[in-house]
Here is the input.
Amino acid sequence: MKIKLPFSDKLLWDLYSLVESADKAFDLFAPRTIKQAFFPEFYQLQRKYQREITRQQFNRLIYYLKRKGYIKIKNLEEKQGVLFTKKGAEKILKLKFKQKEKKRRPDGKWQMIIFDIPEKKRYLRDLLREHLVFLGYKLFQQSVWVCPYDTFEETKEFLRRYSLDRYVKLFLIEEISL
Here is the structure.
């Protein structure tokens, strides 16, 4: 009895199957040990078990992404498609900034950001703080953050995206005295 998979699972499963079939084709030409040459059935059983473990991990990954709300299935022009949710897009953006190599400003100056976001927009305030940490800013004092890295454009882009420009002031400073 075949289980009908949701579209996202089927799409990702088909991609996985393609990769797995390429892996099986490689098995025919892969160098083998003496043990594998003399006991091919054992070797095939071992490979099948390893693939099954990988399938289980893959299924857990898809389930996790849907449960956490990073992906969803959407009907688009009478066809189903997999979309990243807003939460998923933010997660990808955070990962992108996290992996980006941080370069100190060549002029030796520091960026400073001062903000006063109203209490009714607490969510945006918390989001800004989290984003500042990802960009490499450090808390100097309450609502004042400093950064030695060249992240001016990324900071401005974030402020524009969430319409925080009117609550925030950006400065370029020569030095910091502690």
